[in-house]
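Why do we care about 3D structure at all? Because function follows from shape, and shape follows, mostly, from sequence. That is the central idea of this module. The next example makes it concrete: a single protein chain, its amino acid sequence, and then its structure expressed as tokens.
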Amino acid sequence: SNQKGWGLTVNKVWTDKDFMESHDDIYFALYLKEGEDIISAQPVEGTVRRLQNGETEVYYFFLNQELVRPFSDYVVREVVLTPGIDDSAVDADGVVTVPDGVTVTPIAPDGILRIGGTPVGGEHKDGYEYTVTYIPGEQTTQNENVRRDQVVNSIPGIEMYKTDVEGAPLAGADFTLKDSNGDDVAAGLYTSDSTGLITIATLPKGAYTLEETKAPRGYVGLSVPVTITVGEDSSVSINAPPDLVTLVENPPDSGMTARITVKNRTSSFTVRKVGETDPDTGNRVALKGVHFALYRQVRDTSGNYRKDYAPMTGFESLITDDNGIVPRINMNELVPGTYYLTETKAAEGYDILPDDLCFTIGRDGAVTINSTGHQSWLETTTDASTGLVSYRITIPNDEQKKVSFKKVDNSVPHGPGLPGAKFDLYSYDEETDTETLIHSDLVSNAEGMLAEHAEGGDITVFQLAAGTYHLRETEAPAGYKEIEGPIEVIVHRLGEAPGNSLGVDYDDGTSFPTSVEGAVSVDDEGVFTLLISNSSGAVLPDSGGPGTGAIRLIGVMLVAGAVVIMKR
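And the structure:
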């Protein structure tokens, strides 16, 4: 069983905790009060406690029968023991048995504690002066009867806070503080707490840089460091964006030398999928129903960064909505890191994105695109009225063009088609000058339209993504000359077609495509038909041979030889 009683926890806070390796021992005791004043200078018997360096709490417990006054009349005070005591007067729980001749003196609210300590990287010295502040806690009475008080020992310094642009405190932001040599000052890392407090810096004369290395999720960190200059008279000045960093010298509510507040703008992040340009608005239309998967960047055993083998759990099938937005790609769902967005299924009539989109959400909350050549897909905007920083990645997909080919006579381009021509179709990579076969044994049917099956005669409509293609004639129609070299077909990317082109261009090696109107036509269903011409006439032997001149010469030589023989 547990006995019913009253518990009081005293929490100790040092404002210079980030800048001191240790403080000398301090002492607490409980006193009875009446109104705002304690009744006597003598503590409640048996309540003197020692708090050693590294410890942050002192705990008191009273049984009901031990209380001589209501529990709310018991107050904590930091005390000074004069003269000092040794360890023999303190038990393992920190309870002090005050020796005869030792005086216990309470420190009044806003009084001064003089104590020794060791600064980070320095040597121990005496004479540090701290202002003592008492913050009583709220007493709970619902079967608990407990209270948590706080005692703050503060020394003048530069208090640094993290807030949003409206002034609300932000926790979880990381900072570094370095001196003019680039060395860390005291702690290597400072993190804002629930009140937004980053640290209270006790800085000697000099120049310092405060840099935000990690922003809270959903916020954009400060893009440039704050330069802090401390003068000979402890005056403070800063160099930083004035709309995001403020300085108040000697703030009256804290007793500090200065207060620096670093503000973060809120941020949003979306990824949008778009297709062809709407001729009425000039904007690309949103693509609904496109499938994506999101992968983390990982590090292999050799230390190289790569795409993870499997998508992130819950991110295996992300389908764009009516506005083309990829779900779950936002600041609330994703932590800082590098990701790969893979398109797994394109919208109908569109080519699938051939490569992963690699992007990074930095620890400062900023978004960047790592994929070479695609940095222009990222747009960053800042709302002047709200401070919202919006990152949007717009992924364009070129619409696949429907293309068919018709074999015709060069002299009668819009006459009957030519059957029996055979072709192979290749995709062409200009950078590497290589062809990849994508359709073979195409044959023009009775109407001259290329078909994959000669006997069936069905017209083949090719779905071609933006790029360059080579159509090679492997056999000409009977009575026509075979086309030498490739017929180059270019499917232009959206907005890149030259002149008045409809988006598909080609060259069959003659002046035919540019000299004849209608060489490229498009029907109501968006099918482009390209006229491929052949010139009539059989292929003759090369006329550049020796001819009759050589025969006459040989004849003359034979006759001359015969004459010589006869004379002999």
